[in-house]
Amino acid sequence: MDRRTVLKGLAGAGGLALTGLSAPAIAQGAAARTLRFVPQANLANFDPIWGTQYVVRNAAALVWDTLYGIDAQLQPQRQMIESEETTDDGKIWTFKLRPGLKFHDGEPVLAKDVVASLSRWAARDPMGLMIIAIQQELTAVDDRTFKWVLKQPFPKMLYALAKNNAPCSFIMPERIAKTDPFKQITEYVGSGPMKFAKSEWVPGAKSVFEKFTDYVPRQEKASWLAGGKNILVDRVEWIVMPDPATAAAALQNGEVDWWENPIADLVPVLKKNKNISVDIGDPLGNIGSFRMNHLFAPFNDVRARRAVLMALSQEDYMRAIVGDDTALWKPLPGFFTPDTPVYSELGGEILKGKRDFDAAKKLLAESGYSGQPVTCLVAQDQPITKAQGDVTADLLKKLGMNVDFVATDWGTVGSRRAAKTPPGQGGWNMFHSWHAGADCITPAAYTAIRANGDKAWFGWPNSPKTEKEITAWFDAKNLEEEKAAIGQVNKAALEDVVYAPTGFFLTYTAWRKNVSGITKGPLPFFWGVSKSA
Amino acid sequence: MLSYILRRIVATLPVMAIVALFVFSLLYIAPGDPAVVIAGDQASPEDVERIRQSLGLDRPFLIQFGSWVWRILHGDLGTSIFTNLPVSAMIGQRLGPTLSLMIVTLLLTIVVAVPLGVVAAWKAGSLIDRAIMGFAVFGFSLPVFVVGYMLAYIFALELEWLPVQGYTPLNQGFWPWLENLILPAVALGCVYIALVARITRAAMLEVLQQDYIRTAKAKGLGQGGILFIHALKNAAVPIVTVIGIGIALLIGGAVVTESVFAIPGLGRLTIDAILRRDYPVIQGIVLLFSFVYVLVNLMIDVIYTLVDPRIRY
């Protein structure tokens, strides 16, 4: 008998007798059918269209299904769809749903549900908005068929419906999907492989998903969001742990089974544990960034922006973010996710080779910079942004710039960066962020690469040549055309310094060895994951 | 006494109203925007603005405040901006773990600290006294999270006696409930045990020098009787005061403890709400905490009359 048993006996003898706890063997069985997962962040809301945080998208992928799903080759594959047809001119798309699809409330999935869901999604999604802009009508033809009629072709239609970038085009019952896209839904009924146990939801602490027994998976092998989504456990519990050390300890102790994103500092400890597997979680990784405000001096002058690019060391940024594990990062002479089909380094020379501070200082002087404060916003409560901010402050000082380092929290950075007022009046000159590599494969969901002035992301870059090449990508009809367009986007965006990429980095995921079936991907996929006792 | 208690409770209402106005104003002028957090990092400024409008955050201060007060007066703490759940339900969900943690910590504090303080006073100047006071200084100096990590490492990871994290409601069994609370309660209790032990020692030292104690000794009364019947009761007022203040301070300590041990209590809810700028939740929690402070003070006053009959209201 170990000490824990003695303690339990001493402290709980009366209580155990009173409460009639389950016998250990039964508890073991139940534990094996429940997968306990520590997500990257708290699931604070659960409307994947209203709130577009990654954690919401990840949870939503369990509950709501999509018409198409992107696979590991980054290709859209049919998911809820049985067949599709498009006219020769590419203006009319007709889709047919798979038979037998059911929502969690037992109701069948009908074309009218799809029409309402796509309408809500399109109002909030960048690609959806592009489709709405050329939409003639979106209608249900019969219970299983719907039609999307466009005024001009949209070659990326299937990609838009399949993409994993938030917001995904999740299908909800019509009554729910009719909710204003800027207001939250209150019912979480989907047709995905798991049901959301709303009664067990403790926002900020725990979210529970139960296997949807009426779900009919596709026959194809699962591949990211495509293929057969076979759930092999009864329950998946998401347990939020704000403290990484606690999450590491809980994983080592067997209190949780899978930790989505262990911090680099704790990975060596986890790797030493014989019961734990550690591997790269998302092969598409992340792209570090800081954005300069193109509206105000000094960064309204492209020479000042280029001066910073000439001097910055991506190695410094990457080591600050992921430590000395060189397997976790690589330099990135551009904006797009490495090792993806249309990746390009065209025009990336400015980020390569030895850093030239003398030339950078000269260029900065030519831009007219005369020592005015440069307001640098840094969210201290996010380790990645904090690490980057420290490196940037050092970089700017070495360039002879007067840094006004504003260390604050993410909530404040998030609201202040929206201010278009001058830096001295509540505005800013630069802030730090990072982008999921999955969002940066093409311009489809890559908000940060857009350079359409007032309509662009914070920093409001205005680069007509970048925008022209982005349009060329959207119009591309084959992979070669896409590659050519992406190369030109990269070149133009670097010339005008739409933003400063600080490198490409990967993160780990860790799980107990009695869990199997975990695959690498841009989000945690629970289908095919099983757990032994 | 009953009319005194009622008067005190009624007197809390203006206090809470002032606290409410203060908190609401502070949140209004503080930087940060929940719409930004909701929209996510890739959202456009237009999306953020639409969300602000849908949440009513673009309305003038007085209208927002007036509407909030109106809801409060009707017993409605509002709805969380993020979860769309009633604030009262969210607080209700989180109350159990925090109350459990506070109760276990408080019991642990009383059971350990009071006897330690009494013994230290009785053996004043001895090695035992110095050891106890040394422990008290040590306990008082260590931050809660350091003690927490140390305890988790030793008792959860190395010895595997207790779980690292989590909370199990009492209705699922006494031991499952208690095993999750032992480490956090010890971590949180260290500071309070040290504080209460020191106060107990000081109060006891003063009482032990009184004539009636000498008389009791002269009459041949046993050590236990002198210490715990005659002396402790007369030293109880400052001890009760510091325990009472400790309850209020425990709320603050719970914020860190709940994060370290992943306990889904009010402390974590508070931090999450502040980081997300979830105004209705922050306001609801502050109101609750204000009420608890007032109530604890009231309870202390009532207990005074029980331990010292000379005190009358």
From TrEMBL, chain A:
It is found in: Periplasm. InterPro entries: SBP_5 (IPR039424), SBP_5_dom (IPR000914), TAT_signal (IPR006311). Keywords: Signal. GO terms for molecular function: peptide transmembrane transporter activity. Residues 1-27 form the signal peptide. Residues 76-421 form the Solute-binding protein family domain. It comes from the Bacteria. Belongs to the bacterial solute-binding protein 5 family. This is ABC transporter substrate-binding protein. It comes from Bradyrhizobium arachidis.
UniProtKB/TrEMBL annotation, chain B:
It is found in: Cell inner membrane; Cell membrane. The chain crosses the membrane at residues 9-30, 99-122, 134-157, 177-197, 235-261, 281-307. Keywords: Cell inner membrane, Cell membrane, Membrane, Transmembrane, Transmembrane helix, Transport. Residues 95-304 form the ABC transmembrane type-1 domain. Its main location: membrane. GO terms for molecular function: dipeptide transmembrane transporter activity. SUPFAM superfamilies: MetI-like. Gene3D superfamilies: MetI-like (1.10.3720.10). InterPro entries: BPD_transp_1_N, MetI-like, MetI-like_sf. It is a multi-pass membrane protein. GO terms for cellular component: plasma membrane. Pfam families: BPD_transp_1, BPD_transp_1_N. Part of the ABC transporter complex GsiABCD involved in glutathione import. Probably responsible for the translocation of the substrate across the membrane. Belongs to the binding-protein-dependent transport system permease family. This is Glutathione transport system permease protein GsiC.
